[in-house]
Model the fold of this input.
Amino acid sequence: MEPTTMPSETKRPPRWTGILQLCGCFAALCSLFSLIVTAGVAWQEYSETHWPEATATIRQCYVERASRHSTSNIIDCRIVYPVGNETVMSSVRSGSWPAPEKVIWEFHPGQAQAMSDKMQGWVEAHPQGTTIAVRYNPASHAKAALVTTDMPIGGARTPGNVQTTESAAALSAALLIIAAFARRLSAS
Done:
């Protein structure tokens, strides 16, 4: 009787390597989405630098909730400025920051309170009647952007978006490399 040969067994990689690979692909999709958003925001900010300038007068500035259901605060300033023979009413806003009473896990309560104080200080330094330089969209005069970005959480968002995109891409690469390395180790 001839000896029977067993088919060679193929080792299956551990399940966690597949999970790592899936997470790496998800992070890659996130970095791609972030890249698209970053490119759009960068283009918008670049376009704003070419808008005409005007001197705006602050009607009212205050710190408020970013939205009705939000736990974050923003600075919102109602402004008016001349464009030709018309007086344009508009607003300029800061980015959002968690309110001190609603601090979420990634912020230290002192950090949230310090930013809240900084936002309130900026508002108090810009009372009604204060003038600020703005740029306005020549196609839609009511769209305005600050020329000087001393407003807390104001100014260009592109650098932060680039950092987020780089972080997501690095995480994706790390997860995919670890998954590939672990699969090779388990195969040998």
